[in-house]
């Protein structure tokens, strides 16, 4: 009862502020919250696995990973708009300032980036290759790990083959506007 009222209040505030959509991550093992969010109009968009393990220290042939710089911001934003239909400029700029953002280049062209390969970071890439390169280059997976869409079987299986393990299932849900991603991506607990 309290959970429903709290979520109704959140949705009311989103309506007042004219937000086009609301997203949340639901704990995959918690049937009551899944039922509540569904009754409130949220739709399941993506089953996720939180993955954790030792840093892979891998380089993906044909790709180069380096720290992102402020001068990369617009190219990263273009890529995010291509994959998600919008950019996440504020988060990306904060990650660049904090020194956690990385990007992937193929043939001298930016093809992917991550604010952090961890629970509070997100990543986008033209293909799975960029996401593999970002995961392979990450020195750690902060927090409980990073979130990976399980429908992306190629990427999910690859991560498991690299020795990463599932720590928890989650479900990405949304109400209102949602753009189906058009490329590789790792969502964030914040998204």
Structure notes:
The protein has helices at residues 2-16, 31-39, 73-84, 89-98, 128-137, 153-161, and strands at 21-27, 43-52, 64-67, 102-106, 109-114, 123-125, 146-149, 165-176, 184-186. It has six helices and nine strands, in the order αβαββααβββαβαββ. 34% of the residues lie in helices and 28% in strands. It has one domain: Aminopeptidase (3-Layer(aba) Sandwich). A five-stranded antiparallel beta sheet has the order 3-4-5-6-9, sandwiched between helices. A four-stranded antiparallel beta sheet has the order 1-8-2-7, covered by helices on one side. It has 191 residues and is α+β, with helices and mostly antiparallel strands. The chain is globular.
| Succession of helices and strands | HEHEEHHEEEHEHEE
Low-confidence stretches: none
The CATH class assignment is Alpha Beta
Number of helices: 6
Rounded to the nearest angstrom, the radius of gyration is 17 Å
Q: What is the level-2 CATH architecture name?
A: 3-Layer(aba) Sandwich
State the shape: globular
Number of strands: 9
Provide the CATH topology.
Answer: Aminopeptidase
Structural class: alpha+beta
Number of domains: 1
- Tell me about the largest β-sheet: 5 strands, antiparallel
Measured by DSSP, the beta-strand proportion falls in 25-35%
Widest beta sheet: strand line-up: 3-4-5-6-9
Measured distance between first and last alpha carbons? 25 Å
The percent range for helix content is 25-40%
**Oligomeric form of this entry?**
single chain
Average pLDDT for all residues: 95
């Amino acid at each position: 009862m309290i959970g429903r009222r709290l979520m109704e209040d959140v949705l009311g505030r989103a309506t007042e502020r004219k937000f086009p959509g609301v997203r949340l991550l639901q704990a995959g093992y918690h049937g009551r919250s899944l039922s509540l969010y569904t009754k409130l109009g949220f739709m399941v968009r993506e089953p996720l696995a939180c993955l954790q393990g030792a840093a892979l220290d891998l380089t993906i042939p044909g790709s180069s990973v380096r720290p992102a710089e402020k001068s990369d911001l617009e190219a990263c934003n273009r890529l995010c708009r291509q994959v998600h239909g919008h950019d996440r400029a504020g988060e990306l700029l904060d990650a660049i300032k904090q020194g956690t953002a990385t990007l992937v280049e193929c043939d001298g062209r930016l093809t992917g980036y991550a604010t952090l390969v961890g629970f509070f970071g997100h990543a986008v890439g033209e293909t799975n290759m960029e996401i593999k390169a970002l995961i392979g280059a990450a020195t750690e997976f902060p927090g409980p790990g990073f979130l990976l869409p399980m429908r992306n079987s190629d990427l999910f299986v690859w991560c498991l083959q690299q020795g990463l393990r599932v720590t928890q299932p989650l479900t990405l849900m949304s109400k209102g506007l949602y753009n189906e991603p058009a490329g590789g991506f790792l969502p964030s607990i914040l998204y």
